[in-house]
Write a structure and sequence with these properties.
The structure holds 2 protein chains of 2 kinds.
Chain A: H1 3-14, H2 48-62, E1 65-69, H3 72-86, E2 90-93, H4 100-104, E3 109-112, H5 119-123, E4 127-130, E5 134-136, E6 141-145, E7 160-166, E8 170-171, H6 174-185, E9 192-196, E10 201-202, E11 210-211, E12 218-224
Chain B: H1 4-16, H2 19-42, H3 46-61, H4 64-77, E1 81-85, H5 88-101, E2 106-109, H6 113-117, H7 120-126, E3 130-133, H8 136-144, H9 160-171, H10 179-196, E4 199-202, E5 206-208, E6 213-218, H11 222-226, E7 232-238, E8 242-243, H12 248-261, E9 268-272, E10 286-292, H13 296-300, H14 316-320, H15 322-327, H16 338-349, H17 351-354, H18 356-359, H19 366-370, H20 377-391, H21 395-408, H22 411-428, H23 436-440, H24 453-460
Classes of the chains: A alpha/beta, B alpha/beta.
């Protein structure tokens, strides 16, 4: 017998005796909107205005820098200013209608990383510019994917990451974001989907917070109205 | 001395006597309590969210066979390869074979407690591979040649001065007392290693049956890099990690972050559903998943303690445990420390040798209160104690229980025994009796009452 058959056989044998249900505080109420119990999680807001307010609070606590701009022209200006302030020289970006015009307007070396990917070259870059799938107000999380955010490494290898998005991409909570993914991709999921919640961090040395353990030390979210 | 209990007693008494180290651990956990409570307060009901989380795991674990098969079917459809391992040796062989077939040289690892469980690093190093841990805490522990102290905070017991010395010795860097600078030293050292590695090895926090995705939770970004840059990704996971639906993660991911580290959400929560797909610019060419049993089906076969398989390894039970805070993580001598480790290790490694951990508890129940998936931890410690006496009673157990049963069934003998005990109790204090004299070193013995309870009852009710 193969190991697979052995393990599955042992599982079926073990489960012949039923285990009691966990001791719940109250029985769960059935819901048409899975998952059960999501209404007990932190609030994500009832309207876009509420969600944006919650999002702003969460991003500030997580040390994600939020830049709100009314239109795309001002988004270009905002990233230009950032780039001058930070002294970025090598910029890797994702080819995307929101991102490409911004990247190409910068007065530094720019490279579309997802067109001819090279990990050595990406390692030398100061910053990456990408789009994202969805933003979760409840948690301050930004969802990127391997299909729509320039692959796997672009959003995590350079020491700074700038995400360009629209306010219409903000959803109240994690369950909404997951629902959207299922709707958008069905069975053909991107090979990687990552919820990014703040810049990379560690507390491994004496439980003291340090940003930029292995991923980006700085995370910026440029949020365009509309 | 190879008896785990004797080693435990020795190590625990040494670490408990180190007041400086205990104070250091308490201080390190201080920030955790504050942040955890702040995040819990954001939940509209933490208690009801715990209900939902425990039901999500309960329904998956109690349908484990079907859910695993569904998961594996979807995982394979997405282009991944699944390997089943009944025990640690088989899991090591599978991984060694993948590495040999790929003619790999350098391997980068992100944090994976299951790999500690199967002693993977030793096996890979012996076979000649360069293996580097990339999680900062694990990297430090690897340089120290020491097992993780805590399965979420691996080097929480190491002071910055010691880390600075360690880096100076192994990496040749200048001494520094700044946690930030120390973190940056590790960052710089590991960067090129990610780029050069042939294989990335990770763990998995959840296996999603509905979609065939694996979910990895981390703060540093090292798992993201480990699974992005090398051309082969191997994930290693216990079979109990399955959840039914992707929606379940909407509950479990925030709860894992809040219970485990006092965060709203861990920095990177990533779902992987296969190797690089058509139209994607990077990612591994091969994606392997090793599913490990290694004693988990034994625990599954015990319906009373099956809920211990619901564990999402957040570490909350360690952080609140008075025993953990006093003896420290290394004294346990197990892969999984703290209350959850004391509950499951006897199932994974044998009750006879590892039951002593179930005795190392004040049964205060802080662990059960802290558990986000409502595992009945402190009662399971009692269950282990009972099972150990049932299956493998010591001579003391047998004599004591025989004597107890004999006396308790004979009221007159019981009354006489009580009288003898009440009169001789002050004398016992002065005798050098084993256990008792140790107990009384730091405690006062109360004066016994002159009459038994039964006699007092009789008097007061004027019968």
């Amino acid at each position: 017998m193969s190991s697979r058959e052995n393990i599955l056989g042992r599982i079926r044998e073990a489960l012949q005796v039923k285990a009691p249900q966990p001791h719940l505080q109250a029985p769960l109420t059935p819901t048409n909107h899975p998952p059960q119990g999501k209404e007990w999680l932190p609030d994500g807001g009832e309207s876009l205005t509420e969600s944006l307010a919650i999002l702003e609070g969460q991003l500030a606590k997580l040390k994600t820098v939020l830049v709100r701009v009314p239109n795309e022209t001002l988004a270009v200006e905002a990233v230009k200013l950032l780039s001058q302030e930070k002294g970025w020289k090598q910029v890797a970006y994702q080819g995307h209608p929101l991102v490409t015009p911004i990247a190409q307007s910068l007065a530094c070396q720019t490279w579309q990383a997802d067109a001819d990917f090279n990990k050595q070259k990406l390692e030398q870059c100061d910053v990456s510019l990408t789009s994202c799938e969805t933003i979760v107000a409840q948690l301050g999380s930004i969802l990127v994917s391997s299909q729509t955010s320039g692959g796997r490494a672009l959003s995590v290898l350079p020491p700074a990451h700038v995400v360009i998005a629209r306010t219409s991409q903000v959803v109240p909570d994690l369950a909404d974001a997951i629902g959207q993914i299922k709707e958008r991709y069905g069975q053909k999921l991107p090979s990687m989907l990552s919820f990014i919640t703040g810049p990379s961090r560690t507390g491994d040395i004496e439980r003291i917070l340090v940003l930029g353990a292995h991923g980006p030390k700085e995370l910026f979210l440029v949020l365009i109205d509309g | 001395m190879s008896d785990p209990k004797a080693i435990f007693l020795k190590d625990a008494s040494v670490s408990t006597a180190d007041g400086d180290q205990r104070a250091f651990i308490r201080k390190a956990l201080g920030g955790y309590y504050v942040n955890r409570d702040l995040q819990k307060a954001r939940f509209r009901s933490w208690e009801k969210a715990r209900d939902a989380a425990s039901m999500a795991k309960w329904s998956a674990v109690n349908d484990l066979g079907n859910q695993l098969e569904k998961f594996v079917g979807n995982f394979e459809k997405n282009g991944g390869v699944v390997h089943w391992a009944q025990d640690a040796a088989e899991a090591r062989e599978i991984i060694l074979k993948i590495a040999a077939d790929a003619k790999a040289k350098a391997i980068i690892k992100s944090k994976c407690m299951t790999s500690e469980e199967i002693h993977l690093n030793d096996a890979l190093a012996k076979a000649g591979y360069g293996v580097v841990e990339s999680d900062l805490g694990e990297f430090i522990q690897q340089l120290r040649g020491e097992a993780p102290y805590h399965f979420v905070f691996p080097c929480m017991h190491v002071k910055r001065e010691a880390i600075s010395e360690l880096f100076t010795k192994h990496l040749g860097t200048a001494p520094t007392n700044s946690p930030e600078e120390l973190t940056m030293i590790a960052r710089r050292h590991l960067r090129q290693l990610y780029v050069d590695a042939d294989i990335g090895i990770s763990g998995a926090n959840f296996l999603v049956a509905e979609t065939g995705q694996i979910s990895i939770t981390e703060n540093e970004g090292n798992a993201r890099l480990t699974t992005a840059l090398p051309k082969i990704h191997i994930a290693l996971a216990g079979i109990e990690k399955v959840v039914k639906n992707l929606d379940d993660l909407a509950i479990l991911l925030p709860m894992l972050a809040t219970a485990g580290a006092g965060q709203p959400m861990t920095c990177y929560n990533t779902l992987y559903s296969g190797p690089r797909q058509k139209g994607e610019c990077d990612g591994p060419e091969q994606f392997h998943l090793v599913l490990l049993d290694n004693g988990r089906t034994r625990l599954l076969a015990d319906p009373e303690q099956r809920d211990a398989l619901h564990c999402i390894r957040c570490g909350a039970c360690l952080n609140v445990c008075p025993i953990f805070k006093n003896i420290g993580g290394l004294a346990y001598g197990t892969t999984y420390q703290g209350p959850i480790g004391s509950v499951i290790t006897p199932h994974l490694r044998g009750l006879k040798q590892w039951n002593h951990l179930s005795g190392a508890s004040s049964l205060c129940g802080a662990c059960t209160d802290a558990c986000p998936v409502r595992i009945d931890l402190h009662h399971h410690l009692l269950h282990n104690r009972r099972n150990a006496v049932k299956t493998n009673p010591t001579l003391f157990d047998r004599v004591f229980h025989f004597g107890f049963n004999f006396v308790i069934q004979r009221p007159k003998l019981f009354a006489f025994g009580g009288k003898v005990f009440r009169t001789t109790l002050p004398l016992l204090k002065k005798l050098p009796l084993p256990y008792l004299s140790a107990w009384l070193k730091t405690r006062d013995l109360p004066t016994p009452p002159s009459q038994s309870f039964r006699a007092q009852w009789k008097d007061q009710n004027h019968e």
